[in-house]
Amino acid sequence: MNILLGLGKVLTALFWGVVLANLLDPFAQPFALLLNLAGALLVLIHGLELWLFNERVLGRTRPGFERVQILLFGIFHLQALSLAPVHALSTVPVQVEVEHA
Q1: Is residue 10 part of a domain?
Q2: pTM for this structure?
Q3: Which structural domain range is residue 22 located in?
Q4: pLDDT for 5-27, tens place per residue?
Q5: Residue 3 burial class via C-beta count within 10 angstroms: exposed 0-12, middle 13-18, buried 19 and up
Q6: Is 68 a member of any domain?
Q7: CB of 12 within 8 A of CB of 73?
């Protein structure tokens, strides 16, 4: 599973590289327009994923870094988050009062 997630992240990074190259030096039409539309749609989808799975990010040690990873890699990073253990935000023990009968 980790191999597929890594491959997905690599392919997504290559896609973002092509989109960036298209922004710097546009490709022939209609490919430049279609690539820009695909990039904009992917940013919208990854933003929606970030909004929907915000609860999963909040329990992490570096939530800002996790949010950037989700914006770049989307579901591939979210799947990796579900496989990794979650660290507690606080290590302070909670005292529970016990009722005496």
Answers
A1: yes
A2: 0.69
A3: 2-83
A4: 889 889 999 999 999 999 998 88
A5: exposed
A6: yes
A7: yes
